[in-house]
Amino acid sequence: MKTSSESAAHSYNGYIMLVVLTLLVVLIIWSVSGGAPPTGAEKSAKLLFVGRLLGAVFGILIVASGFFMIQPNQAAVITLFGEYRGTERREGLRWVWPWMMRKKISARAHNVHSERVKINDLRGNPIEIACNVVWRVSDTAQAAFDVDDYKEFVNIQIEAGLRTVGARHPYDDMSDEDETTLRGSADVVNREPCEELNDRLRVAGIVVDEAGLTHLAYAPEIAGAMLRRQQADAVIAARQKVVLGVVGMVQDALGKLAADGIVELDDERKATMVSNLMVVLCGERDVQPVVNAGSLY
Prior knowledge:
Blueprint: E1 12-13, H1 14-33, H2 43-64, E2 67-70, E3 74-80, E4 83-88, E5 92-95, E6 100-106, E7 110-113, E8 117-120, E9 126-137, H3 140-145, H4 150-166, H5 186-201, E10 206-218, H6 220-260, H7 267-282
Helix pairs in contact: 1-2, 4-5, 6-7
Subcellular location: Membrane
Keywords: Membrane, Transmembrane, Transmembrane helix
Membrane topology: Single-pass membrane protein
């Protein structure tokens, strides 16, 4: 397929042509009011008057139909009998010959929030994902001629790119390996949709300035199971932290007792003390103290 390329169009200053239109209107008014031949004039004079009048009217129609307005961040693609004749980006009132077609294309930034898409992540888990995309037209010729409907093309490619990016990574890290995940690697995952969409939309002359995930969740059919798994992981991590802290406290207690010479414990008593402290410090409920008033042994 031949790739189109934007080029500058040749158009005229619309304000100058507005002056020409005004002169033509004055001419036709003068022709009707003061320039009409008398009743008994010759036929040739009457024909000349009618011809001048029709010419002025035709000129007014020609000039009036060639005006078009270009607003800021807007462009007009100009064609002549199906042939691309350039793109006009200069702001203000412009004028071209009326048989040259003008198609206006906005060069402003567009913001699109995609629908939630249900896909499978790298491990095959069904997830729901959505993104927000900011895009704009950079090459009006490609947008007008290389794709049928560039706005619909953008919407379809956003969904396709979102599926591609979502299938590259797992939703969450279920192993001990440090890998890129959709939930935990926001900097990487938010960069990939922008790169993917720029590759896909380059054929339409469209540039994606920003793309990021706005919704990410497990599909409803597995959300409950995954929530229990996440809760289990949180409980295990908390338990590990508690155990490490308790071990340090027991070591400090035994070291302090030995250093200050408060009491000397054999290995069996140390094991008993460690066991009791671990139970007391790691337990989730308050313990009931038991006072031993007898001998240590």
